[in-house]
Design brief:
The complex is a heterodimer of chains A (182) and B (178). Chain A is of the alpha/beta class and 182 residues long. Chain A has one domain: Rossmann fold (3-Layer(aba) Sandwich). Chain A has 7 helices and 8 strands, in the order βαβαβααβββαβαβα. With 178 residues, chain B is α/β, with parallel strands linked by helices. The chains are: A alpha/beta (182), B alpha/beta (178). At the A-B interface, α2, α4 and α7 of A face α3 and α4 of B.
Chain lengths: 182, 178
């Protein structure tokens, strides 16, 4: 998170990813105006991110996605890869499971997501297996001018005390819309 | 019946010039026109109807403008998840103009796969509390503009999606540059 700029926005996928992001902001005394915590619509966060990125050219738009979401609406990768939106930075946290609803397996460890993104037309595709690789990769995608895709291999495991957003989706939308106007 | 060009220009006058969706044969002539005359990134053919709806949510959040999502009614199933879980008034409350081709309209001869959806579509929209209006080839252009304008106002006022249902041959035939 330290690598993501104060002017950048994050569109996070439904479930634990959005709850973690909300809690991160809270614990770091940051407001929630730069995030779109996609509360539902599994698999659709990266298309919301595309729509925002195309019309917020002065900002980098990060999508925090999951492997189950990618599998659910994989066709979206071809749209993103084809449009080549230069400020869209697509990050997929791959734990090979539907962790938010109990940890049931996905098929994401049975194939190479990064290669699929590459074949779909993303300009830069990376994968990180450890902290060192992740630090290097995040700098690369931050500086890259073109559509980019980063797969982050993660383990299962969420804190038992992970909270839920206190504000409503509508409040979240209004805050972000005000921020994007700037 | 209305010329796609007239309809397109009318929407532009209403501040609507962003289109995303999945092509439909009943909307073919409108889609040709949109493809030919939209500026870069103002028209995105999406992977499926739900993806289109989600792109349109992003567009609205960034611009505060009303987007168009077009589809054949067989794509309603793909649309429903993000429509009810994200765009709905109870969630993010996003104004969107849905333009839906009505295949399988009762009484009109059509293929088997369109019959059931065509039969239940209006009831589905009612259940989902999506305001809708139907336009057909018997409507004059002025009438079509008035109906569309009424829907757009409703969408803006309620900050939620509305649907314009399009019967066969509502849009006049055009020759595309494509």
């Amino acid at each position: 998170m330290n690598y993501i700029g104060l002017k950048d926005v994050i569109i996070s996928t439904t479930g634990f990813t959005s709850r973690e992001l909300y809690e991160y902001r809270k614990n770091n005394n940051q407001d929630h105006s730069r995030d779109f915590l996609t509360v539902g619509g599994m698999g659709h966060a990266n298309q919301i991110a595309l729509g925002i990125a195309l019309y917020s050219k002065n900002k980098s738009v990060y999508c925090f996605d999951g492997d189950g979401s990618i599998i659910m609406h994989m066709g979206s990768l071809s749209t993103n890869g084809n449009i080549k939106c230069a400020n869209l930075k697509h990050i997929v946290f791959n734990n090979g499971s539907h962790e938010s609803v109990g940890g049931q397996p996905t098929t994401a460890h049975e194939f190479n997501i990064k290669n699929i993104a590459k074949n779909m037309g993303y300009g830069l595709t990376l994968s990180a297996n450890n902290e060192k690789q992740l630090k290097k990769a995040i700098v690369e995608i931050k500086e890259y001018k073109g559509s980019c895709f980063l797969e982050v291999m993660i383990s299962n495991g969420t804190r038992a005390d992970l909270g839920r957003p206190k504000s409503s989706p509508l409040e979240n939308k209004k805050l972000l819309m005000s921020f994007l106007k700037k | 019946m209305i010329k796609p060009q007239l309809f397109f220009q009318y929407l532009k006058k209403e501040g609507i010039d962003f289109y995303t969706g999945v092509p439909d044969s009943l909307l073919k002539d409108l889609c040709f026109y949109i493809s030919d005359y939209s500026k870069e990134n103002k028209h995105i053919i999406a992977a499926n109807e739900g993806s289109a709806l989600s792109i349109s949510i992003g567009y609205h959040v960034a611009t505060n403008n009303v987007p168009v999502v077009y589809l054949q009614n067989s794509g309603l199933g793909n649309l429903i998840n993000p429509l009810l879980s994200l765009a709905d008034k109870d969630v993010y409350s996003i104004p969107i103009l849905l333009i839906i081709g009505w295949r399988g309209k009762p009484g009109v001869k059509d293929e088997p796969q369109h019959k059931k959806t065509g039969h239940v579509m209006l009831d589905m929209l009612k259940s989902m509390k999506i305001p809708y209006k139907v336009i057909s080839k018997s409507n004059k252009p002025e009438k079509i503009k008035a109906i569309t304008g009424h829907l757009i106002n409703k969408s803006k006022k309620n900050n939620s999606p509305v649907a314009l249902i399009v019967e066969r041959d509502t849009f006049e035939n055009i020759n595309s540059k494509l």
